Amino acid sequence: KTMAEKLAAEIVDAYNQQGAAFKRKEEMHRMAEANKAFAHFRF
């Protein structure tokens, strides 16, 4: 596949809310929510 084809496939996946980038974003948001409870602690 060419770079253009890969980029087009990733854009389509993002539009359909799937693919590697979307999964990475979802995981990041889950981690942020999990860590929010500990934000008030100072180390």
From TrEMBL:
Recorded GO CC terms: ribonucleoprotein complex; ribosome
SUPFAM superfamilies on file: Ribosomal protein S7 (SSF47973)
Keyword Ribosomal protein set for record: yes
Cross-referenced Gene3D superfamilies: Ribosomal protein S7 domain
Pfam families xref list: Ribosomal_S7
Keyword Ribosomal protein included in the entry's annotation: yes
Keyword terms of this UniProt record: Ribonucleoprotein, Ribosomal protein
Domain called Small ribosomal subunit protein uS7: residue spans: 1-36
Family as reported in the entry's similarity comment: Belongs to the universal ribosomal protein uS7 family.
Protein name: Ribosomal protein S7
